[in-house]
Automatic annotation (TrEMBL), chain A:
Residues 2-123 form the Response regulatory domain. PROSITE patterns: RESPONSE_REGULATORY. The modification 4-aspartylphosphate is found at D58. This is Response regulator. It comes from Arthrospiribacter ruber. InterPro entries: Bact_response_regulator, Sig_transdc_resp-reg_receiver. Keywords: Phosphoprotein. GO terms for biological process: phosphorelay signal transduction system. The keyword Metal-binding does not apply.
TrEMBL record, chain B:
The keyword Oxidoreductase does not apply. Its EC number is 2.7.13.3. The keyword Nuclease does not apply. It catalyses: ATP + protein L-histidine = ADP + protein N-phospho-L-histidine. Residues 161-202 form a coiled coil. This is histidine kinase. CDD domains: HisKA (cd00082). Residues 211-454 form the Histidine kinase domain. GO terms for molecular function: phosphorelay sensor kinase activity. Keywords: Coiled coil, Membrane, Transmembrane, Transmembrane helix. It comes from Arthrospiribacter ruber.
Amino acid sequence: MKILIVDDEKDVETLFRQKFRKEIRKGDISLEFAFSGDEALQILSSEDPPKFVYVFSDINMPGMTGLELLDKIKAKFPEINVSMISAYGDKENYEKAIQSGAKEFFTKPIDFDSLKEEINKLTNL
Amino acid sequence: MGLENIVTIILLYYLHKNAKAANVSQEWRKYIWFGFLLAIFLLLFGSTGVIPSLLTSALSIALIGGVAYLVLNYDEFQNTKPLFIAVIPLIAVSVVGDLIEAIDKSFYKKVDMIFDVASFFAFIWAIVMYFTYRKQRRIREAERLVAIEREREFEITQKIKAQLEKDVEERTVALTRQKEELENTLAELRATQSQLIHAEKMASLGELTAGIAHEIQNPLNFVNNFAEVSSELVEEMQQELEKGDLEEVKYIFEDLKVNLEKINHHGKRADGIVKGMLQHSRNSQSQKELTDINALADEFLRLSYHGLRAKDKTFNANFLTDLDPSLPKIEIVPQDIGRVFLNLINNAFYACNEKSKLLRNSGKNVDYKPEVTVSTQLGDNELEINISDNGSGIPESIREKIFQPFFTTKPTGQGTGLGLSLSYDIVKAHGGALEVESENEKGTIFKIRLPISKKSP
């Protein structure tokens, strides 16, 4: 299962790869990373239809925000699951994300256990 | 002979007349009046023969002698002296004549002619002198009047002078009071100014807090996450060791090394942000230090972006940097120049945001991408930092005013109106220049030029 993670902090890649080491080794999931909304859209559009099942995106990013990216993914690829990860877990962001079709809303610092649970829900299907 | 008495009457008349002006005592006036009556009596009865002629002559001579003594010896009668001098020959002729007549009547008869002639000349002398005296008296009177007038004028002048002195004194007191009031006001204004500057610092610190919180939260999350994942990796490594999969152990070991570096890196990042914040809030005189302008500009661009983003959820803008890596470090007060960057970048983002709000509210579906760019370049013995936005630009009508204190286009309560004014002062204090270029609907560029001091390497 291909998962795309979007965050402007590059160290997120190292962190996620270590956290999901076992899953990646087993071949249950494969991770890709984008560091801006534009890059994420580029990656998703490079294959038709995209092989990605799930996108996790940060909200606060320069340029295109995570919420804008969410709208665009949902418009172009409605079948891809999108969840938001934000340092600002306020009601406004949360409601906007859910309204726009976000599957889940995670707050930073990321609770990797619940994130794994969320991913496992999909891989066990 | 009654000439002495006539002269006496005239003299006493004038003595009496002059007495008032010369301030003669009441007692003297009484004597003068008495002598006057006696002289008239002697004149009337001297020639009738009622009183022996010898007695009349003696009394007459005694009387004129007394008058002569008075006039010559008392200051009070000085003013009658010229008149007395006029009649001296008359008196002398008359007295000598009387004496000769009294001693030898027959001899007197023989020299009668001489006395008549002498009397005649003495009389003419007396008349001439009298007129001279009158003329002098008039002149003196005129002089006296002039003197009185002068005295009066002098008194008036004195009064005016006194009034003037009083006025000047009052005015001086009033001016001194005003001066003190002004000095107090100035001192109050100075105190208010430094309070305002501090308030502006605190306000921009307030604007920073959200950005700082976000900036600190991120590295702290990484520190926590990498620490957590590392302890998981250690456990896994132990399992792999027990299994004997040394390849995997090596792999995990490499990861752990990377993680320790990451923890260190993000710890330092948070540390730097806290230090920067402390520096920013410090109110004391700050020291100049060698500073990397590119790093400072980048730091404040991020702080500004995240600060605005945290405050206003709808805000978003792209930010770009175009930093010249060849810039030397320069001697500046980092927190001061940091404030300038923060003010200018905040304004730039604000301008973009206002434009996108305006476009959104107008309903026009224009593809507008708000964008703020910070660029640096090396000039001729100076650094140039440009902060540009693609907002609506600054209308020409207010471009002159933007550096004035308290001038703001933001709604009440949102801007102190001191940001640009203080930025201008800070750049000036660094020997640099702050200029603005703006084009309607295209955007604005703020140019900061800072000299490269000779001391810096």
